[in-house]
Amino acid sequence: MAASIVLMTLPYAKNALAPHISEETLEYHHGKHHAAYVTKLNAAIAADAGLQNKTLEEIMLSSSGGTFSNAAQASVFNHDFYWHSLSPEGGGTPTGPIADAIKESFGDFDKFKAAFDAAAGGHFGSGWAWLVKADDGSLKVVSTHDASNPVVEKLGKPIITCDVWEHAYYIDYRNARPSYLAAWWNLVNWDFANVNLGN
């Protein structure tokens, strides 16, 4: 139940994504920003008995304002999902079912990559870019603002995500989001994408 939200342990060492994403960035992004969302959500749960018997997903789908933001940002649908979307052994072109699905939905990997870069690089302000599986089985690229996500907005099932809040890249790339996106492609966890596609 949501009464015991715990900060996710990263599935790799904090220096494992370097040189694309530095240890310092992970110390701030995971250790400070993500941790703060978890702390604030736990405080909200402690102060509201109505939240104490709900799962994290139920809180995210039924709340608004600060509680929603902290639930979505602290949950698997945003930051946890982002950490799993990255891997030290990731990057390159996808293999397996996700490669076939990308080809079927976008024509080829380069067209998919261009669509994802346009969504992530062109997103105004803070938010997220996502590859999702739509109800008809096709893959689509979508973006969401602030703490929102495809589950809340009913945009499809998340497959992978890229965090385009500035705290995800400012230490390493300052305000150069395109440079961060170019680095992000070296870390994409296609194994995670294949698991999500199959579930």
Key features of this structure:
199 residues, mainly alpha, Helix Hairpins, minor pseudopilin epsh fold, 2 domains, three-stranded antiparallel β-sheet, 3 strands, 11% strand, globular
Overview in brief:
It contains ten helices and three strands, in the order ααααααββαβααα. The chain is mostly helical. A three-stranded antiparallel beta sheet has the order 2-1-3.
Q: Overview of this structure, please?
A:
One of its GO terms (molecular function) is metal ion binding. It catalyses: 2 superoxide + 2 H(+) = H2O2 + O2. Belongs to the iron/manganese superoxide dismutase family. The chain folds into two domains: 63 residues, Fe,Mn superoxide dismutase (SOD) domain (Helix Hairpins, Orthogonal Bundle); 102 residues, Iron/manganese superoxide dismutase, C-terminal domain (minor pseudopilin epsh fold, 3-Layer(bab) Sandwich). Strand 1 and strand 2 form a beta hairpin. The longest helix has 25 residues. The chain has a three-stranded antiparallel sheet. The chain is globular. The chain is mainly alpha-helical. The model has no long low-confidence stretch (mean pLDDT 93). The protein is built from ten helices and three strands, in the order H-H-H-H-H-H-E-E-H-E-H-H-H. 48% of the residues lie in helices and 11% in strands. Helix 1 crosses helix 3.
Number of strands: 3
What is the domain tally?
Answer: 2
CATH superfamily of the largest domain: Iron/manganese superoxide dismutase, C-terminal domain
CATH architecture of the largest domain: 3-Layer(bab) Sandwich
Beta-strand residue fraction = 5-15%
Q: What is the CATH C level class of the largest domain, in words?
A: Alpha Beta
Trace the largest sheet across and list its strands.
2-1-3
The termini sit apart by 23 Å
Query: What Rg is obtained from the alpha carbons, in whole angstroms?
Result: 16 Å
- Assign a percent range to the helix content: 40-55%
**Strand-and-helix sequence, N→C?**
HHHHHHEEHEHHH
**Category by helix and strand content:** mainly alpha
- Gross geometry: globular
CATH topology of the largest domain: minor pseudopilin epsh fold
Unreliable residue runs: none
The main pleated sheet reads as:
3 strands, antiparallel
Name the average pLDDT.
Answer: 93
Function: Destroys radicals which are normally produced within the cells and which are toxic to biological systems.
Catalytic activity: 2 superoxide + 2 H(+) = H2O2 + O2
EC number: 1.15.1.1
Family: Belongs to the iron/manganese superoxide dismutase family.
